[in-house]
Amino acid sequence: MSRRTLLAILGVIVVILIAAALYYVTLPPTKTPTPTPTVTTPTTPTPTPTNTTTVTSAIKNPDKLIEATIGEPETLDPAWAYDTASGEVIFNMYETLIFFDRESVDKFVPMIATQVPSFENGLIKDNGTTIIFPIRKGIKFHSGRELTPEDVEYSLERVLVMDRDGGPSWMLLDPLLGVQSTRDEKGNIIVSFEDIDKAVEVQGDSVVLHLKKPYPITTLFQILSQTWSSIVDKQCAIAHGDWDGTEKNWTKYNNPENPPLQEADCGSGPFMLDRWEHGKQVVLKKFDQYWRGPANFSEFIIMKVDEWSTRKLMFLRGDVDIAYVPRQNMKEVEGEPGIRIIKNLPTVTNDALFFNFNISPTSPYIGSGKLDGEGIPPNFFQDKNVRLAFVHSIDYDKYIEEAWFGEAIRTPGPIPQGLPGYFKDMPMYTFDLKKAEEYFKKAWNGQLWEKGFKLTILYNTGNVQRKTLAEMIKDKVESINPKFKIEVRAVEWPEYLKAMVRGELPVFIIGWLADYPDPYNFVFPYMHSSGTFAAWQKYKNERVDKLVEELITTIDPKKREDICRELTSIYYEDVPSVIVDQPLGRHYERDWVHGWYYNPIYPGIYAYPLWKG
């Protein structure tokens, strides 16, 4: 990717097309075909830039790119991280074999690999089950070591070995080993080291992936272009106490309690870790030996500024170049000198309220842990009447208007508008306090209405949308019966994630950004018992699991559509969660920042192509 000097034109229109016929490299006619679903562009307005006023003051911090946002990373370990705050940092510290070609989600450019494999160049073989990546020479890690094919093999096998609960490893386990997890429901390891070792092999100057079966190639490439597929310095990782790459004690590193590379830098990307000041900022400094040439900034600083008025003042003064602006506060920066706003960005993301079917008995958020008016039992939400009562207590239209200023839609199920398998005509739950009251009265054989309950809903500090939804639920539910008590509490993002993974949250509000834009990547985390959210919820429906597993291997678009329709219908019937929004995106920057482009899959700012001027 070139440095793109003098690229920007004020007023550039960022056109984002999530291309139709997105995903699959066609197999030769004589071979077994792989699925070829079609993706259409969401029916949203074209992204439009708003450049308000010419800058009249000098550019501040010309040698630094500074972003002010909310929250902070959970970890800097690529094989562990599965949140956007962590992903943004890793995104700039590490590199992958291949990478998205700018705005495109289905076109790729070589990075650590020298070529993007295809049937045409002979790097995809054996009916699509052998993928060869020639490894680029001369790439330096931040440690000064030269990257080798052995580092690539180690990195990808490390993802398979780690497979932490709720992590991203399933995306590589699926094509390489044919499983969603290395463990069964009881936690017993069900794969062998031999399986892992054979899946990724070094052959001369190349690394070869051996797939368990033909897999959608573009989907695989999208997985390999993301942060969890980052290539790490093997010696650096081992020096930090990580797996040594051999069969000896490999199971010790499966599903660890803590990320081995929590605050380590074992990358080769354009920026290297200078320091992580917890609760304050992450400071990255440019890597002068970066193989594509040094970045335009000496530092990329990601500041944690949860309080809006402080963040706003920093942005308007030019102390920061890019800022997170809540929808409730967007009018406070519109029309201000030197602020560029890009609106109507189509997203492949949604947000939902999730119910925990089996809350940890030691959770501090369920009061007494009993149905006695002072808490809730761990299986509180197993009663479908409770779930139905909650979903009818949400004023969805008001929430979208207040939290998103109308710049969002609702969808009937997990599959977002714009992907195949989205059905506008399917039923959705509505705001209806009378129905909510009826279901509360039915719940727990009438005991819930008589005794009442207490629980706590958490949201991550600074997330106005989640705060709005949590407070709305509290207000409406408590209005139904004075014996119903809900506390709403803010916690830091890493603590929120840990409580969610530990199964402590009675309900949780969180969003899903597509790992790759296919309906499977939404129904799996939302509905499959091994999926990220469903596993945390302890939700399991055998019919759902079968349908989800069938979806990824189904070729015919009509059959895929039928599967998605049935899954959406079951989602409505089972109510494991409820989708509350699919928002349009916005981007806010000082108009001295140039080179930014929008890719809906990116976890955050990719700083390398940016400059000030």
Automatic annotation (TrEMBL):
Signal sequence, renumbered to the chain: none
Low complexity bias (residue ranges): 37-52
GO BP: peptide transport
GO molecular function terms noted in the UniProt entry: peptide transmembrane transporter activity
GO cellular component: ATP-binding cassette (ABC) transporter complex; periplasmic space
Superkingdom per UniProt: Archaea
Protein's recorded name: ABC-type dipeptide transport system, periplasmic component
Species whose genome carries this gene: Korarchaeum cryptofilum (strain OPF8)
Domain Solute-binding protein family span(s) in chain numbering: 109-532
